[in-house]
Amino acid sequence: GPLSERRLMDVRLGELPTWLATCDFSPQGLLGGVQKAWSGYYNKYINVKRGGPAGISMLLAGYCLLSYGWNYQHISKIAFLGIC
Fold first, then answer.
1. How far is CA 78 from CA 36, 67, 68, 74, 75, in A?
2. How far from the centroid of its chain's Cα atoms is residue 68's Cα?
3. Please, which of 8, 18, 22, 79 could form a disulfide with 4 given CB 3.0 to 4.6 Å?
4. 54-76: pLDDT as tens digits
5. Domain map of the chain by residue range?
6. Orientation angle between helical segments 52-70 and 72-81, nearest 10 degrees
7. Running along the chain, 84 residues long, what does each successive block of 10 average in pLDDT?
C-alpha cells in the first residue's frame, strides 16, 4: 500500500524520512496515534480469548511456583535435616 498507510514496523530504513514526513504531528493526529496504539495493545494483551487448557495449565503452574516460593525456607530446612 501507500507509504503513509504503513505501520512503523513495515517501513524500511531508507523510507523512514519520507514516512515521517507523511505523519500528522498535530495534537489531533497524535491523539489518534495514541488511541490506535492503545487499541492494538488492548486487543493483543488484554482482550484475548479466556479459558482453555493452556490458560488453566499456566495458571496452575504459576500457582505451584508461587506456593513453592512462599514455602521454600520451610522445605529447605526439612530436606536439610533428612526428614524428607
1. 54, 16, 14, 6, 5
2. 26
3. 22
4. 666 777 888 889 888 877 776 66
5. 1-47, 50-83
6. 60
7. 84 90 90 89 74 69 86 67 54
Residue 81 is predicted with a pLDDT of 57
User: What is the full DSSP assignment across the chain?
Assistant: --GGGS-GGGS-GGGHHHHHHHS--SHHHHHHHHHHHHHHHIIIIIS----HHHHHHHHHHHHHHHHHHHTHHHHHHHHHHT--
Q: Length of the chain, please?
A: 84
Take residue 59 and report the three cell numbers written for it: 495458571
